[in-house]
Amino acid sequence: MSVVPQLISLLLSYHSSAPPSSSSTPLLLRVTTNHVLGRLAPFLLPSSLPPSPPTDLLPNTYSFLLSSLSSPSTSSSAARALHDICLAFGRARGSGSNSSNNNSPSLLPSLPPLPLFEQLMHASLHGEIKYRDEVMVLEGLCEGVVAYMQGGREEVVGQMVGIIGKHMAGVLQEEQREGGREGVKPRFQSVEEDLERLTAVVKGSEPRGQGGREGGKDGAGEVAQIVQGLLPVLEASYQAYKSKVEVMEKLCKFLKHAMRAARPRASFYPLLEPLISFLLRGLSETEQSSFLYCLSYVLSEFGPRRSSSSSNGLQQQQQQQLLARLLLMFEEVSQIVFSSFLRTADDFTDHPDIVEEYFYFASKYFSHCPLQLAARCQRGEMQMPALPQTLLHTAMVGFVTLQHKDAQRAIVHFLETFLSAGLDSSSSSSSSSSSLQETHAWILSLLHLPNETQSNLPPFLGPALLFKLFQGLAGEIDDTLITDEDDPCLCGVLYAAARCLAPPSLPPSLPPSLLREWVLQAVQGGIGEHLASPQERQKVWEGVCRVGEGGREGGRREFFSMVADFAWNCRERGRKWRRKGWGRVEGRKDGILEG
């Protein structure tokens, strides 16, 4: 493979006498050279060259690509090449195949992270290189070089964050002094870019030991220190630009990646209370879904599922306090959503992004801690005692009211998670069989509560939900939500409902025919005869009941196929019915086209 270093050396020597803007060097040739250097990045590392190489190619390549960054025509390809070289450096350090190469002292001086970072940021701020190209190189530098540093990593990360934070604070001070008067670049855009730089540093610099990302699981708590030190400037950014959706999205993105990168987890716990309060305030004051999205990650990263295998440095009492705080957060978020956003059926159409993020947020509670949520409800500790049934009511209202596929999919995901909460051990990581039974009994009790949404639906929540499911299958929901092996879909919700109501899983107080009765009501009420014949309705009813009564997973794929075929047939007949002009009268008679 010695021919590859020789080829690289030849390419570099050809370009060494001409600057990137020189007319003597064809533009396409220089761009192609950048791409080639990126693809051949592994051969640039000193450890991969033949013994006693005549020269170290990395510094020359580094200088060549930096000069290409200053030309608008070649900057993107040069940034990609530098990004790839940094990642190749990281792969060489992280590979377990050759430990002598991993500890080679000649690698790091060739890519000094802090001087390169300062050079890139300075050039970007002065318009000498594109901001996007700067961030691409920064991401590669942090992920491929900084994350694998054996010593001094915390100091380098701290200095990078300090430089960005200082610049960000200066921009915010200018905003306070000069108000709306802007320079060449709007100040809010500068803050947005600084937040993205911070995200790149925190996200990419998570320590990686031999074997990859998990090598840094113990960490030193520097991410928590970084966030703690940035709290004043983050608050100032919020106060100055909370009306700027893009800035708030970048702010929440930074906080999300900070939570994900925090090692050890316990180091971040003291920040959770101020962080939750800040995000709740942001959601209430700005009405932006990015805060709701970030709140979901609080539960994802610090909820029971993530901490089930270890205490993460917390005592049992502290873990209980954390769980109680997370459960309270669910109510606080719900109170804001239902009092400010989703007050009427029309609000679902006006705030599809909030609907989407909220139902994904709610799904995580029924996935991570359904037993604890059930216990809190049953003990009467909820600030919103009717929250679970309110969730089901709003899910049914939004189910067909929305004409927004992503929001509908979020509702479908919630319904599937809700109905499965007491069935699978995977949905509640540390739950015993008795705990699952308690959760399942609670879910069933909610399904027997009165339906208070629409008068044309069955009187209880369970049958009303099934009624809506079959209406959705018949044509009220987007075609792409009918069936999907990997993503939430209507077939998945119906499958979960069949298992939830199956006779083997019902307590003695409920009749074993519950599933058959409820599904029969839904099929007869939700599917008109102009959409499916009595034989077809009989077949789908028996198929749903058979899956539930079988109580096993084996028929999931066959079930999806059977229900999807039924749905496609109903939809095709519905389209023909409407084209003939009959749907307006007969559909209303059968209740199919009512929202």
Average pLDDT for all residues:
82
Please outline the major beta sheet: none
Looking at the structure, what is the overall shape? elongated
In angstroms, what is the radius of gyration? 29 Å
The helix tally amounts to 26
Q: Which secondary-structure class do the elements indicate? A: mainly alpha
Estimate percent helicity: 55-70%
CA-CA gap between termini:
68 Å
Number of strands: 0
Along the chain, the helix and strand elements come as: HHHHHHHHHHHHHHHHHHHHHHHHHH
Poorly predicted parts: 96-106, 210-217, 426-431, 584-595
The percentage of residues in β strands lies in: under 5%
Describe this structure in words.
With 595 residues, the chain is mainly α. Helix content is 66%, strand content 0%. The chain has 26 helices and no strands. The radius of gyration is 29 Å and the shape is elongated. The relative contact order is 0.04.
Keywords:
mainly alpha, 26 helices
Write the layout of secondary structure elements.
Elements: H1 3-15, H2 27-39, H3 57-69, H4 75-94, H5 99-102, H6 113-125, H7 131-144, H8 153-178, H9 187-204, H10 222-241, H11 245-261, H12 269-286, H13 289-302, H14 316-340, H15 345-350, H16 352-368, H17 370-378, H18 387-401, H19 405-420, H20 433-447, H21 461-476, H22 490-500, H23 514-526, H24 534-550, H25 556-579, H26 583-590
Helix pairs in contact: 1-3, 2-4, 3-4, 4-7, 6-7, 6-8, 7-9, 8-9, 8-10, 9-11, 10-11, 11-13, 12-13, 12-14, 13-16, 14-16, 16-19, 18-19, 18-21, 19-22, 21-22, 21-23, 22-24, 23-24, 24-25
